[in-house]
Amino acid sequence: MAREDKMLQMYSDGKAEALLGEILHKRQEMCKLAEQKGYTHKDTIVCSQELDELLNRYQRCLEQKQEDKRPFFTILPTSLAFSK
């Protein structure tokens, strides 16, 4: 299993709070870099991209949680629908 898949599994098991902590930390780091070096500096851009990846992981985690909560009948393919 890939590292990212393991991390996603960990977060989807109820550890989303840890991911939110990482997001907040990375955001603070990015803001500090932007103040010190400017918004277009390479370090600020790299940090922004890392923040984007964390946000994407969190979004996938939320989507997975929503999918896990869907009722069984909404998951069934339409080909299995009952007909008279």
Automatic annotation (TrEMBL):
Taxonomic lineage of the native organism: Bacteria, Bacillati, Bacillota, Bacilli, Bacillales
Signal sequence range: none
Superkingdom: Bacteria
Alphabetical list of PANTHER family matching this protein: ASPARTYL-PHOSPHATE PHOSPHATASE YISI (PTHR41263:SF1)
InterPro entries cross-referenced by the UniProt entry: HLH_DNA-bd_sf, Spo0E-like, Spo0E-like_phosphatase, Spo0E-like_sf
Listed name of the protein: Uncharacterized protein
Species: Priestia endophytica
Protein's GO biological process: regulation of sporulation
GO molecular function: protein dimerization activity
